[in-house]
Hints:
The protein is an alpha+beta fold. It has 2 domains: about 5-205, Lambda Exonuclease, Chain A, CATH 3.90.320.10; about 235-290. The chain is about 40% helix and about 15% strand. The strands form 3 sheets. Strands 2, 5, 6, 7, 8 and 9 form a 6-stranded mixed beta sheet that branches. Strands 1-3-4 form a 3-stranded antiparallel beta sheet, covered by helices on one side. A hairpin with a 7-residue loop joins strand 3 and strand 4. Helix 2 (about 30-35) packs across helix 6 (about 145-160), helix 5 (about 135-140) packs parallel to helix 8 and helix 6 crosses helix 7 (about 185-205).
Amino acid sequence: MTARRVCSTLDMTREEWLKRRLEGIGGSDSPMIYLREKYPFGGDRVPELWALKRGLEVEPQKETPAMSRGTAMEPLIADMYAKQYEGKRKVQRVNAILAHSELDFMRADVDRIIVADDAHDGPGVLEIKCPGLRTFAKCKRDGLPDYYQIQLQHYLAVTGYTWGSFAVFNCENWEMLPPFDIDRDDDLIGQIIEEDTAFWKSVQNGERPELRLQSADEKSDLPALQIDDAVADMSQNDGFIKAMADLAEAKEYKKLAEDIELDAKNRIINLMGVARADVAQCPVGRVYYRMQKGRETFDHKNYLKAFPDRFDEMQAFYKHGKSSPSFRPYFFKEAQ
């Protein structure tokens, strides 16, 4: 199967490119359609995507700093990817929007084509990703997220290629992950085509897809409001929304850092166990891992059980801090 060239993207403005995207389903659309409410960026975006494809009045997607960074870095990352293989893999731009040979609504604007590779039969698709530190760390720890892989399988469906690869690069650390080669998965492609076809039919016949909400147990459990609580609706306050988004992101970074720290700590302990060492060092630093005396604490509860008549005497030595505000944020998954 050979994909059909729909149009050239050379000298195409972003506005023209966005307009062309309305003509079909692209690789970045498929994860939204396939994952529905499990899509990690705002939950179920299918009704919104449907309205966009229908040409209804929808807020146009603005180019974010992350998008600008990815566009600017794409040529450099493609070159870095090719250099890893010392000339054994050559990549080139397609400069065209492609369409499935039979399903014209399935489109692909691939980052690069891998035109030469000794380890694979035929060309492959190269998908370039330039995520922030959080997503990059997750890829490094857990592998590629589902929405990355669905996007690539969409491209393989359109092009007919049997394999593809990811170049995942982080600007903050100036680090590229080892290449992720992905084989064509015809079972997954079949499911993607089924979901995309049903969605495109709804676009053509004007039947708006129903919004799928997350189940109640996937949302944050909010504590009950007190009668005297002063509640403010900040839904239209951009400063508050931005601050809450920053706080949510910081908490995710903290959780991710804690997971990475625990994993690294366990690996170090295992390696020191193999070496039967209490102290180990390398150019990065030194680690001590040995038994130490337990901390001594006063068991006041059992003391009072044994000497209940001394309660008033002990109370005189308790310290009571001043009252202070309690800050407890809760986040809705849809907002993350």
